[in-house]
Amino acid sequence: MEYSILKNGVKIPMIGFGTWIAVKEDSDIVLKAIEAGYRLIDTAAFYDNEEQIGESLQKSSVPREELFLTSKVWKTNLGYDKTIRSFERSLKNLKTDYLDLFLIHWPKNHLDTQDWIQEDQDTWRAMEMLYKAGKIRAIGLSNFYPHHMIPLLENAEIKPMVNQIEFHPGFTQKYVTDYCKENDMIVEAWSPLGRAAVLSDEVICNLAEKYGRTPAQICLRFTYQSGIVSLPKASSKIRMHQNLEIFDFEISNEDMSVIYTLPQTGWSGEHPDRRPLVDLGW
Ligand SMILES: NC(=O)c1ccc[n+]([C@@H]2O[C@H](COP(=O)([O-])OP(=O)(O)OC[C@H]3O[C@@H](n4cnc5c(N)ncnc54)[C@H](OP(=O)(O)O)[C@@H]3O)[C@@H](O)[C@H]2O)c1
Predict the structure, then answer these.
(1) What strand order describes the sheet that includes 101-104?
(2) For 38, which of 55, 83, 100, 191 is 20 to 30 Å away at the CA?
(3) Domains of the chain, first to last
(4) CB within 6 Å of ligand 1 — which residues?
């Protein structure tokens, strides 16, 4: 496994395992992913799978300190007190006493809320407090665009170390990734395979043939060469292994350009200023 280093010195694996839907399909999928070699596990309160993941972590023989566990506070739990409660609930469900990374899942609660900037700042103060108390090794954001990050960064005591966004061939959000790089934040790619939609793209398939790799490996190597952490989800051990085997070949600069300039494809349709609200019910 290759690692990157967050600005506070914490090591983060360049590939993690995405658990959204995965644990509902197979409650022990995280144990299988750890056995396959994954060390970063990406979950969220919203995925409603933290308890099963906690059980898999207990069954695993890999020590907790070798794993990099991420969770996120959902948009209906933004605000100082609710964020702390959500964090404590994630810890309890995951059966651990610290997280490696905790993220604000989306920047806005109700899309017509005028005070989302204040709500993000209150949420961030809770994250800073938990970080300073040693309960989280790194704190960050998810689905934040520059217009969401600017007011937060202006008022933050501790700057976010990560931003997790949709990123894959056909949807690279360069305006967002450039802003993150300028502000020394590591970008994590969600849906790095474009939820499989990108894997049948003709350009990606031709490159797969050229490099003697699978389309998924082309997507993940492209993300890695962009300096971005990937979080692919997969249901079989074969795919889990395949998605880790990307560190022994290199995509040329010309082909990186070909991928970066693909027309938009595989976009999930999710947007932080447009996405409807889903309440967790707690
Ligand atoms: N922060 C956020 O708002 C946010 C939003 C969405 C997702 N995420 C995170 O990102 C993770 C990944 O995103 P995602 O699940 O949406 O999409 P994804 O990882 O881009 O794609 C998963 C799809 O690709 C298929 N696949 C995986 N490996 C493959 C391979 N080697 N060959 C062919 N097909 C392959 C999977 O099929 P099988 O499962 O059948 O193998 C599944 O259909 C999530 O699990 C979650 O942790 C975060």
Answers:
(1) 16-18, 40-42, 68-73, 101-104, 139-142, 162-166, 186-190, 229-230
(2) 83
(3) 3-260 (3.20.20.100)
(4) 18-20, 22, 42, 105, 142-143, 164, 190-196, 199, 214, 216, 231-236, 239, 242-243
